[in-house]
Structure formats: C-alpha cells, structure tokens
C-alpha cells in the first residue's frame, strides 16, 4: 500500500504565491497512476481553501499519513518555507510570522517514528527546505540528525537558499514531475528517489539553487513505473544471444528486413537487438549503425550497462 499527502498553498495573506496549488495537482497526476494506468500512490490533496490549512491541521494530516501501516508514505509540500537558528519551518496561512510555522523538525520526527511504514519519502519545494534533518542543537549549523532506515528526503534548496518559481510553478517540482514521467526511468521503467535526484541535479546549474538529497535506505523503492524501453522478457534473452558478457553476436544481411535473402526469425531478433541498442545495452562492431553492421556482416557487443543486465539475468536476479 502506497499513500501520499500532497500540500500546495498559494493564498498567504501577506505574500501570496501562484503555482503551489498547481504543483500539488501535478504531483497528484503523476503519482496516482503508473504510466500504464495501474494504481500507484493513493493521494490526499490538501490545497483549498487555503485558510483552513492551519499549523495544527497540517500537523494532524502528517500524523495521519504516518499513523498506519504502509509499504510507502510520501509527503509533498509546496508553499512558503523559512529558517532561523532553531531550524526550518513550513509556513501556513494562519501564522503572522513565517518563523512561527510548522517546524520541519516536527515533520522529521514524525517520519522517524513511523515504525509501521516501510519507506518514507519527503519532498519539499519551499525556501530553506534543506533545513529539514538538521539538528540545531548540534555543533555546526548543517549537522544532520540521524535518518531512520527507509527515509529519503528531497529538497528544493539548501537551508540558506530560496526556491525559485516561474509562472508555471516551482522549478524544482517541474523537474520532479518530468523525472517521474519517465525522465529518470531505468531500462525497466523504474523511477527511484536517487534517479529522480540525479535527473534534477543534472538540470540545475552552478548558479542555481542547490537541491539536496538525504537518504538512509537498504533498497531502492520504485516511486513510479513507466513503460520500459526493453521488457523483462526481452531482457531475459540476453544470455541467449551472448554466451558470455564479452561475446559478440554475429550479424549478416538476413537480419535486415529489407534485405535478401530474408529470414523472419532473424528479423524478430534484430528488433530486440535494436531495442537493446536504443537502451544503450549494445553497440555495433565496426559500423556506426546496427543496420550497417548487418549489411556488412560484422557483429554487435554489449556495453557496460548491457553486461550488467547480462549478469543479473544469468544469476537469476531479474
């Protein structure tokens, strides 16, 4: 069972925002279903009316997210954030002072204490979001508190930085949504917290806000399943085509559909080899393209990524 609490607040009395509700809705759209339409996270949206998202209500909603057993619980927040010497805060519309919001330390402790939840994911798109997990009572402003096993945190910025937005919404959330939509998917179509962070990290420049990842996990939980570039059944045939991970698979014109003589079995294999190539699992030998490797009767061989998956299949781990 996967569940998610998605919070987006635009209507702040003194400093309104424009894209946070939209961001929460976009997160709902991408998390609720996998790309094939199958159910993923059961999402609860907390967006409007904003004046009812008070600090006590937000705290109780978070308690509810972590209260019962689940395979995964995800908390997402888009809105104002702040920080001082006592830590970071998620700002709600009922607070006159931004530094009187819900302490990020409260969110962190509730996540740490969620013993019945196997994996906890926290995603914060707000200013000073990197303050979560910092323990201000320790020596050093950025000393981190202990993360429980199974807890992963993604934040839009460091504790001292703002989180930028455009007319469309938060830059950080836009990258998260793109990553979940397939930009961070592996060969099997699986999107995980580290792959999402890697996607976001590559997109942010040296002068941009610096997103952070804090994680303590023993395995990678798929946040979303996208349509794979190569199916599991097709991957399982790697040892069939390559006797060893360093072997070359010989090609000839019969593998090319438009060539003569034509071989239907070879044509089917060639389609799979083309998928391997598109997924960076193999490369042609002595040619720039797989087509020319077949026409010129050379071969193809596995890339390091292809050899990795070959090993997984051969060991019965895929």
Task: Summarize the helices and strands and which ones pair or pack.
Elements: E1 2-8, H1 20-32, E2 42-46, H2 55-67, E3 70-78, E4 81-84, E5 87-90, E6 102-103, H3 104-112, E7 117-125, E8 151-155, E9 165-166, E10 169-170, H4 171-183, E11 190-191, H5 193-203, E12 212-216, E13 224-225, H6 232-235, H7 238-241, E14 248-250, H8 264-278, E15 282-285, H9 290-295, E16 299-302, H10 304-314
Parallel strand pairs: 1-2, 1-3, 3-7, 7-8
Antiparallel strand pairs: 4-5, 5-6, 8-12, 9-10, 11-13, 14-16, 15-16
Helix pairs in contact: 1-4, 2-3, 4-5
Descriptive overview:
- The chain is α/β, with parallel strands linked by helices and 318 residues long.
- Helix content is 31%, strand content 22%.
- The protein contains ten helices and 16 strands.
- A six-stranded mixed β-sheet has the order 2-1-3-7-8-12, with helices on both faces. It has a three-stranded antiparallel β-sheet with strand order 4-5-6.
- Strand 1, helix 1 and strand 2 form a beta-alpha-beta unit.
- Helix 4 packs across helix 5.
- It is elongated and about 80 Å long.
- The relative contact order is 0.11.
Name given to the CATH architecture of the largest domain: 3-Layer(aba) Sandwich
CA gyration radius, whole angstroms: 24 Å
What global shape is seen? Answer: elongated
Per CATH, the class of the largest domain reads Alpha Beta
**Oligomeric assembly:** single chain
List the uncertain runs.
139-144
Mean pLDDT: 93
Kindly give the count of domains.
Answer: 2
Strands side by side in the biggest sheet:
2-1-3-7-8-12
Distance between the termini: 23 Å
CATH topology of the largest domain: Rossmann fold
């Amino acid at each position: 069972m996967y569940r998610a609490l998605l919070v987006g607040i635009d209507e702040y009395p003194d400093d309104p925002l424009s894209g946070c509700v939209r961001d929460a809705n976009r997160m709902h759209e991408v998390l609720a279903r996998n790309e094939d339409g199958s159910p993923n996270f059961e999402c609860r949206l907390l967006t409007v009316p904003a004046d009812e998202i008070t600090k006590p209500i937000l705290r109780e909603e978070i308690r509810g997210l972590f209260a019962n057993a689940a395979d995964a619980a995800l908390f997402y927040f888009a809105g104002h954030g702040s920080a001082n010497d006592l830590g970071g805060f998620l700002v709600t519309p009922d607070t006159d002072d931004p530094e009187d919001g819900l302490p990020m330390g409260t969110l962190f402790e509730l996540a740490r204490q969620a013993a019945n939840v196997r994996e906890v994911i926290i995603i914060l798109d707000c200013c000073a979001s990197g303050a979560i997990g910092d323990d201000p009572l320790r020596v050093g402003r950025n000393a981190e508190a202990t993360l429980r096993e199974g807890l992963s945190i993604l934040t839009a910025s460091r504790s001292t930085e703002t989180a930028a937005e455009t007319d469309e919404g938060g830059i950080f959330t836009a990258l998260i949504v793109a990553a979940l939509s397939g930009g961070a998917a592996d060969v099997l179509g699986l999107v995980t917290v580290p792959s999402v962070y890697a996607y976001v990290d590559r997109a942010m420049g040296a002068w941009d806000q610096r997103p952070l990842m804090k994680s303590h996990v023993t395995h990678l939980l798929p946040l979303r399943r996208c349509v794979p570039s190569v199916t599991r059944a097709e991957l399982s045939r790697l040892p069939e085509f390559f006797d060893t991970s360093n072997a070359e698979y010989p090609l000839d014109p019969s593998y090319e559909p438009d060539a003569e003589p034509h071989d239907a079995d070879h044509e089917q294999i060639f389609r799979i080899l083309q998928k391997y190539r598109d997924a960076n699992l193999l490369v042609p030998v002595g040619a720039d393209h797989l087509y020319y490797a077949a026409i010129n009767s050379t071969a193809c061989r596995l890339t390091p990524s292809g050899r990795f998956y070959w090993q997984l299949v051969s060991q019965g781990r895929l």
